[in-house]
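Entry 14. Structure prediction run on the chain below.
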Amino acid sequence: MNAVCLLVLVFAVYSQAQNSFELMLEDVEVAENTDAKIPCSYVATGELVTESPTIKWKVEQGDQLHVIYTFKQDDEAGSGPRSVEGLNRTYSVDDDGALVIPTATLADNKIMGKLNCEVDFGKTGSKNGAIMFSVYAVADTNPIIMLEKDTIFEAGEKMDIGFCETGFGYPEPKITFYRGGEEVESSSGSESLDKSDGENDALSEFLGDKATTSKGMKTSSKRYLKKLLTKEDDNAQFYCMVTSGGSKPANQQQRNASFPLFRVHYPTDTVTLRASSKTSFVGDQLSLTCDANGNPSPSIILDGQPSTTMNIDVTKNDDGREITCSAQYSQPDVEAIREVYTINVVYTDGVKVSGDGKVNLGGSTTLSCSVNSKPPSTVHWTKNGVVISNSGELMIENAQFNDAGTYECVAENQFNQLKSSDTVDVMVKGIKLKSEPAIELAGEAGEEVQLTCMVSGNPPPQINWVKMSGEESTDLEQQPQASTSGNEYTSILKVGPLTAEMSKAVYECRAGNEVDSVMSRYTLPEIQQASASPTAGIIIGILVALLVIAVIVAVLYNKGIICKKGEKGDENAEDIAVEINKEEPPADADVEAGKPEETPAAAAEKEELLNGNGDP
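Output returned:
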C-alpha cells in the first residue's frame, strides 16, 4: 500500500470518527382525545449536523417490526406511509420527522403501544430504538364518601367506617386512605357488593376490601375503610385520596374527600400536665394546664381544686413543690389517673463575703465568698475589674500598701439574671521607710544642706526631727510634711550654714503611727574652714598696695614734696629740700638733748636726701 492510499484510509477513518450521532428517545403518554406527537430525536456531530437522515417509524406486532412511515426531508418521493396488514389507524409525520397520532384513544395503547424509530445516515450507518406510547383517561367524577353506621364507635371493635368510590378512568384509579397526614392500611376481607351498576352489564371484581367496575377499558373503584378502632381514631379526620391519570406525576390528577368526624368511646389512660416554663425564677408567674384523654371526658382535679388551669407566683419556697392533676370518673370502680409536675425554681440568695479586711503591713488575711443558689454558682474575685482568683477564698500574704482597695466577689451560673456580687474594702496598716538616707552627707562650711525623710504609712504618720548628742537628743522645731501620693509622706529639714563645730553632727527623722514607728539617721561630714580663693587673695593684695600708696602720697603731699595746686612743677630737688628744712620747727632743747648721737651711716643717708636724688 503506497503512502497516498494510506493517507486516504487514515482520513476516511478520521472522518468516520468525527461524523457520528446518538438517539435521544423518550416514552410518550397523552390524555385521551388529545393529539399525540412522538419525536424521534437524535444528536449529530461533524458533517452530519447539516445532513438530513432517513427516518423510519415501525410498529411491533408479535415478534416483528413493520414500517408504517418513511420520512426523508425534502424528498417527497422517498417519504410516505407504508401499508401494514391489520393496522387501521390514521397517522402522519411532522416536518422534523416526529410521528403524529391525532385524537389518541385508549385503543392506541394496543395498536401503537410499541413503536420503533430508526435513523439512517447512509454510509455513516443507522440506529434504532424503542418508544413506549400510552394513552390515559382521568376519572370523570369526584370521590363519593359516606358512613354506613352510627357516628359513635367503641374502641377495640373492627368497624367498617365507610367507603370511597371513584369515577371511571384508565389505568384504574388508585384509592388511598389517610388519618391526618398518615396513610391508613385497611384490613383485608371480602365485602358484599352489588355487581351491576345498571349500565352495559358492568362487571364487578372483588379485591379484598375493594371492588372495581369496568366500562370498556375504563375502570371505577370502590374501596372500604375497615379498621380496628383505637383511642387515636377518636375525633380524627379521615379522608380518601383518588389518584388518576398517567404514570408520570405531571400527568396525574388527585382528588380527595373527607369522612365526617366520628367519636370513639375509650377510657382515660393519659393525663397531661403542662407548664408555661420548665424553669421558673423567683417572681415569675407559672401557669399550669391539665387535660386528659378519654371519651366521655373525665373530671379534672388540679392541686385539689376542680379546675384545668392554675397560676402560681413563684417564690424560693416553691422549689420542689409537687402539683398533682387527676382525671376521675364517677364510677367507684374506675381508678383515677394522675400526673405530677414538680416545680423547678432557679434562685440565688446573694453573695456573702466574710473575713477581716484590716491587715498590718507584711501580715496576711483570708477573705471568703459564698453563695446559696440553684443551680450552684461559680465564684471569682476581682480587683479593679481584673480577675485575681477563681475560687471562693482569697488569701493576701505579706500585705503591702498596694494590696489595699476594694475587692469584689462575683457569683454566676448559666442564667445571667442570677449574677450577683458583694464587695469588701481591704485596709493595710503600718509604716515603713520609703527610701534609705545617705550615711554621710556632703557639705562645707557656710553651706546649707537639705535632709529629706520619706515614709509610707497608714494611718498617716507623725514625723519629728531630733539632733543627737551622744545618747541625748534634742527635739527640733516641727517640720512641715506633705503627702506626695496615696500613703507616701515627705518631711524636709534644712541645716546650715555649716560650721566646723557641726562636723559629724547626727540628725534623726522619727516617724510613727498607731501601728509602728521607723527611724532614719543622717550624719553630717567633717566640715573644714573654707580657704580664700586665689582671686580673693589678689584682690586683697591690690587693695593693700593701693592703701599704702595712698598713705605715702598723703605724706608727701603734706610735706610739700609733691606740688600743690597752682605751684610750679619744675622745682628741683634742692629747692624742695630747702623748703622742707625751712618748714621744720626748731628743735626743742630738751628734744635735742634727748636725741641719740647720729651715726655715720645716718649722716650719710641724710646727706643723700638733701642732695635730692642722692647723687653726689
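Confidence is low (pLDDT under 50) at residues 2-15, 187-204, 565-596, 599-616.
Filed with the rest of this week's runs.
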